[in-house]
Amino acid sequence: MPSLITPRPRSRRGRHLAVAALLSALVTPPAVRTAQAALPVGADAPNFSAEAAVGGQAFRFSLADALKQGPVVLYFFPKAFTSGCTVEAHQFAEATDRFKALGASVIGMSNDGIETLKKFSVEACRNRFPVAADAGAKVMKQYDAALRMVPGMADRVSYVISPQGRILHSHVSMNPDGHVDATLKAVEAWRAQQPSPQPTAR
Is 125 a catalytic residue? Predict the structure, then answer.
């Protein structure tokens, strides 16, 4: 006979422990993970603006404005100050000059609050590039970058967006290693296809 005892609802502490365990799995993943979905190459990149921070200072980031200067590397990360996200931010910081030399800019995005991201932009991003707050996880959902198990949190997904607002490349892996190399190669390939500037007549 089936039991008539109703299971007790999980306590608040139990829920917190479950979330903590999930976060631990996210930020200390195995070396290889099956890629999740991402926007396909050639798709229109959804336009957005968001509160962001660089060097501890808040400002309003606009994708449309950034694309006027060249390609944008937009990378989503789960949570500031977790081990994998800190490693990834350090790697993008170290590669910032290489992206700039190719005419590209970098911005990270998570659903952390702007005050947290102000600190993260200094300590992890080393004042080299901005990070944006995705309030309500709206942008990550538009970019198909939300975690399946926790839709309000970003997966680790990196995009390269052309100045025309199209997806040039996507790299999906919870392992932070590889995102910089993959996006840098995509930007280099884009640059190689651009026409050389014509010499000015004298």
Answer: no
**CB count, 10 Å around CB of 166?**
14
* Within-domain flag for 25: no
Question: How many structural domains compose the chain?
Answer: 1
Tokens 């926790």 locate to 150
Label residues 81-94 b or e (16+ Cβ within 10 Å = b): ebebbbebbbebbe
- Write out pLDDT tens, residues 181-202: 999 999 999 999 998 765 555 5
User: What single letter denotes the amino acid at residue 58?
Assistant: A
Which CATH number do you get for residue 93? Answer: 3.40.30.10
Of the candidates 52, 66, 85, 104, the residue annotated as catalytic is 85
- Residue 54's domain comprises 47-192
pTM assigned to the model: 0.82
Whether residue 38 is contained in a domain is answered as no
| Cα–Cα distance measured from residue 19 to residue 63, given in angstroms and rounded to the nearest whole number | 32
Q: What is the average per-residue pLDDT within 92-119?
A: 98
